[in-house]
Every structure is written in C-alpha cells, then in structure tokens.
Write a structure and sequence with these properties.
Blueprint lengths: L1 E5 L2 E8 L2 E7 L8 H16 L5 E6 L10 H5 L4 H20 L4 E5 L3 E2 L1 H7 L3 E5 L4 E2 L13 H8 L1 H9 L3 E2 L1 H6 L5 E3 L2 H17 L2 H11 L6 H15 L3 H12 L1
Parallel strand pairs: 3-4, 4-5, 5-7, 6-8, 7-10
Antiparallel strand pairs: 1-2, 2-3, 8-9
Length: 255
Amino acid sequence: MTSTPLDSGTVTLAVADGVATVTFAHPKSNSLPGVLLRALADTITAAGNDPSARVVVLRSGPGPFCAGASFDEMVAITDPAQGKEFFLGFARVILAMIRAPKPVVTRVHGKVVGGGCGIVAASDYVFAVEKAAMRLSELAVGLGPFVVGPAIERKVGHAAYSAMALDADWRDSAWVESHGLYTHRLPDVAALDAAMEPFVARLAAANPDATAGIKRVCWLGTEGWEALLDARATMSGEHVLSAHTRAAIAAFKAS
C-alpha cells in the first residue's frame, strides 16, 4: 500500500488480487482541497496503468462520502488564475476516472455534495447505501456546477441535470438511483460490501481486453472534454471571486 499525507488528508493505493483500491480521506467530511484533488487524480491514473490491476475501486474515509470542494481554500482564492487552478483539480479527477483503461467502481457509504457528485458521475459502476442522499450544492454558495456538470448531465440527462443545478437541494438515494448515478442501492454498509465485493472480484477475473473495450465505448463522445473542462474551470475561477459568492460561502460556513 502507498499512502500520501496531504494537509491532514490522505490518498492511499492498495493493489491485491487484480483490484486497485484508491481511498481518499479528509477530516472535514472528506472534502477536497486542491492538493488532495491532484493526488487523487494522479493515484487513479497510476491505478489505471498498473498492469497487475484489472479494476479500480474508489472509496473514501469515515463520514460522508464526499463534501465537495474545500471552502477554506475557496475563500483564500485571490485571482482568476488561482481560482481556475483550484477547479481544474476536479477536472483532473474526472478525466483520470474516465480515461482509466479499467472500470472504476465507486463505493458510496454516505452523503454526496457538490464536486463529489461529479466523482460519482464519472464512475463506471456505483454501489451506494440508502442514506446516501446527494446535493449539487454549488448555486447555494454562489457558484455553478460547471466542471462537474458534463459528467452528471451525461448520466442523468439534460432535464434532470438542469433541475439539480438550479434547485441545489437534497435528492434522496432513490431519486439518484432512478436517474442512473447509483447502480445499486443497498440498505446499509454491510449489505453494500456484501454485494460489491463479489462483483468486483468477477470484474477482476473477466477478460481485461473486453472490459477495457466496454470502458472505451461507454465514454465515447468525451474526446474533447480536456478543453471543455478547462473552459468550465475558467468560469468557476471567475465566479468564486464575486462578492455574492464570497458572502454566500461565508453564510454557508456559518450555518
């Protein structure tokens, strides 16, 4: 196992029996500061390129699955270039996931917020617990889900994505599953793991050329996403500097 400490957060990679398990964790509800985002993208890429691995499992530490972007880091942004670089962190993670030549199976054991929704959407297969509600919260803090939007819209469709983006409230796990972001919804973590582990083992034993081919065809049409997500990160980097957004983030942190 390799482990990288990152400003109180960590990203670890463990490979065994054809399965590369990537785990990210941060004490603030598994939120994602920039340094953790970069390490997560690099680790997913390394897992995808490991010849001994045939499937990548993505999971997080205790608490919510992911609380999204680090508010502390967002409020410290002072210019558009710095803002763009921060939001490019989410772009790099999404691109690492969809470009990995192996299926990415994600274990969602708790609530998902903001940028975490994009990580779920960039997965190839998702197991989640019933308590794993989801909230695309960007508008509530004066932003828009610009970088994660393409991955989410691809899974749920334009109408549902528009609704999620404009109504930044919680969706329960039944809604999330019915719109294709969760593949399986289980009553609790024990049931989740009982269902997920044999599925991952079967994938690891499957023809790697066939699974790689399935992965490619499932993400056809994303060839231009490097440029698209770069442009979206520019938009987010500009919005995060507005007085409205600064006030909204401060109010959200205080709530």
